[in-house]
Amino acid sequence: MKDTVEHFLRDRLHFELVPKDLQAILAEIVKEPEFVASDRNPLQMVGAELLWSGKTTPLLDHDYLNDRDRADIYTMSNVSAMRDTAAKLSLFLVQRNRSLLGYWPVDLEQGGPSQTVFELDTEGQYRIGEGPTLAETLCYRFILNESPSQFEAMAKMFKALGIQVPYKSVDKIYADMVNLETKIDQSPQAYRSARYDHYVERAKR
Is 90 helix (H, G, I), strand (E, B) or coil? Predict the structure, then answer.
């Protein structure tokens, strides 16, 4: 399992410093491979799984394209733009609804995280996570969904891995999301749109 984890880190994460919560999950998997399907794994609680090397998903592979799609400059410009975005957005988690989570690089003044969680939904849209980390994103969703007992259960799982997730009110979660997004020079959505315009313009020449 150690080799599997090393390949995952090499192929999925485009930065050197692995976030502590993801690092804790991976360390447990290396120590005990059965942890992947264990009820102690917080990912199991939400039906999510790591995007292991070699695993396919339509949002990355675009294997749903047909000949008509491939002949359409707008469709293929969007595919190219999404591939460019994926090269920067370190997509690492497949969720139950088949949307993906990834880490987007940020450069915040006065400290702060060097990457933050974004979601790529099944419609091809990008949105900032409910928290900058994986643990916060998964936990705070339960608060936003008015499921405090599930928040407590998820937070307890991460605490067992050495990761603390403090409680936040709904208003505080949304305020922090907005505040963080305003500090990001270019979001994945803005980057994808710029790349899409570039490919459309090039195709029309």
Answer: strand
